[in-house]
Amino acid sequence: MAVNQGVSSAFASGKKFFTDFDLKKWAEQIGGSSAEAIEAAVYFGLCFSIGFLVKKYFKVIFICLAISLFVILGLDYLKMLVIDWESIKSSLGISASMDLNAMITGFFDWIKAHLLLFISSVVGFFIGYKLG
User: Fold this and answer.
1) pLDDT above 70: residue 98
2) Region 95-120 average pLDDT
3) Close Cβ partners of 90 (under 8 Å, ≥ 6 residues apart)
């Protein structure tokens, strides 16, 4: 009987927590908005999924990417396929004058501006990788 009461009281307290939980109020208490919390949760979920899949299927993903890269670059070398590298760079936001240092600096600037998203992404990836 005591076990059933403990389970029912734990269930009742869990139910009370979820019915009383206000994401907007909680996010404002920690200094953010509900939109930022939702965005961080989405980043966490996506990176969790990516980490989980990478752990499960790393060999298959790596082999497929290596073969695809080899075939595409081989076709480009033989001029059977023409790759417009300038168009690819412009779609990725890489200008012709941008070098590796500028790209790394831009990456760290993005991290500084979006620290919550970066942390939630890294934590999500590592938890997904660990559980995968």
Assistant:
1) yes
2) 84
3) none
What string of H, E and C letters represents the secondary structure of the chain?
Answer: CHHHHHHHHHHHHHHHHHHHCCHHHHHHHCCCCHHHHHHHHHHHHHHHHHHHHHHHHHHHHHHHHHHHHHHHHHHHHCCCCCCCHHHHHHHCCCCCCCCHHHHHHHHHHHHHHCHHHHHHHHHHHHHHHHHC
Whether the Cβ atoms of residue 125 and residue 45 lie closer than 8 Å to each other: no
What is the C-alpha separation between 17 and 127, in angstroms, rounded?
24
Q: Name the token pair of 9.
A: 């009281």
pLDDT band at 1 (very low <50, low <70, confident <90, very high): very low
Greatest Cα pair distance, the chain, in angstroms, is: 78
Query: Model confidence over 24-76: pLDDT tens digits?
Result: 666 566 556 677 778 888 899 999 999 999 888 888 989 999 999 999 999 99
